Task: structure prediction
Amino acid sequence: MNWTLVLGCVVFLIYVLSPWMTLKTVQRAVGITLFLQIFYLMGHYVMEWPFPTPLVLIQLLVASSLGVALGVCFSKVWPLPLNKGFERIFRTFLIVIPSLGLGMGLQILLQGAQATQAIYLIFALAAWIGSGQFVRAKEEEQPVQKKVVNGVS
Result:
């Protein structure tokens, strides 16, 4: 409970103080959390998983909120390109693979060695969803000579 409370306060401070965390970001985090809560409730009744306690539900909120915040920060540094292609694939790998590692650490902090939820996957998925917050502005079409001259001078 201690780490859940500390990380919950950190999430609250990040969402209140950061100018990048808009209402759309909060809606994404809450939407992911609600989907996960329904998923684990259905899993309890259909697959006989352990019933999610209020602590587990708060841990899901913390994990998805931190993941979305990481994705938004990544998106601010490297905005989503307009065109589909190799850059989007490379960008996806650069956000998902490290967030899986960070999510494993987060899972150990929140649930210890006997985890009942896949916090690391939730964190990585939320980071990937949050990384679509900012889209790169459309570049003006200029002739090649003008691009070279502007780049040199």
In short: Residues 86-111 form the longest helix (26 residues). The CA atoms of residues 41 and 59 lie 15 Å apart. The chain is about 75% helix and 0% strand. The chain has one domain: 2-136.
